[in-house]
Every structure is written in C-alpha cells, then in structure tokens.
Amino acid sequence: MKKPTVLFLCVHNAGRSQMAAGWLAHLAGDAIEACSAGSDPGEEINPAATAAMSEVGIDISSQRPQRWTDDMAHSADVIVSMGCGDECPIYDGVRREAWQLEDPAGQPIEFVRVVRDDIRFHVETLIESMEAPSS
Is residue 28 in a domain? Predict the structure, then answer.
C-alpha cells in the first residue's frame, strides 16, 4: 500500500511550507511522506524559520527551496497551500487545503515562533484527518 503524500506549497518555499514539512516528518514519522515547494522559490530557507524549528528539535537547515512541478502535485494525496493564491495547482482527485498563515519572511524570531506553533496545530489536525477511517 502506497504511503500518503502531502505537498506543502507557498510562494518562496523558504518559511511556512518548509516548517510544515518539518513538522509533518517529525510528528508522523514514516507514516506520511512530506514534500514542500514554491511557485517562485527563494534562494535559501529563511534563517529565522530554521532557528525557530531548531528550538523545538527539528532540523530543516539542509532543505533548499524548490519549484513545484506537475509530477509533485499529481503524486500528492493532499496539497496544502499557504499563500500562493492562484499559482497553487488544483487537480481532480487530490484533496486541497488552504491554510491562512502569516508570512514569516523578514519577521523577528518572536513572530516566526508564533507562525511555527500555528503550523504545528494545522499539521496535527491534518494528520488526525488522514488517520481517520473512511466511511
């Protein structure tokens, strides 16, 4: 049986989507595949996002921003968009969620911590919904 895949998308793939993928990998372990990408990827991950995740024991420092592809989107079971608007793909048969999250780009670490914790709540809810038996 194929392991479910979640694709987290934001514009620069440097903050929110990277933190979400980090949380999913940390909280779900090997049960769910986590991927992240952006519609206009940045050069590097937001250092404040890396620092905020490190504070909770999650290392995303080796990740690099990347552009989403049709292959990524087609292989995903769930696509979670975080502010990429019309740039985020919609595909038949793929569950889509849009999370309203503040953009941590250029913000102080205190702000990024709040976003990090908000993302954790959303990821926990997503995991629960994916584990719920289908009726």
Answer: yes
Which position among 6, 7, 9, 10 bears the catalytic label? Answer: 10
pLDDT in tens, 98-110: 999 999 999 999 9
| Residue 84 appears among annotated catalytic residues | yes
Catalytic residue, from 19, 45, 53, 88: name it.
Answer: 88
According to DSSP, the β-strands at 95-98 and 78-81 are parallel
Q: Which of 84, 112, 119, 126 is catalytic?
A: 84
Query: Is position 35 annotated as part of the catalytic site?
Result: no
Whether pTM > 0.85 for this model: the answer is: yes
Is 88 in the active site? yes
CA 82 to each of CA 2, 3, 131, 132: distance values in angstroms, whole numbers, following the listed order: 26, 23, 22, 23
pLDDT digits (tens, 9 = 90+) for 69-85: 989 988 999 999 997 66
Q: Which residue has the tokens 């595909």?
A: 91
Q: Determine contact, residues 8/20, Cβ cutoff 8 Å.
A: yes
Domain assignment present for 5:
no
Structural domain of residue 99, as residue ranges?
24-131
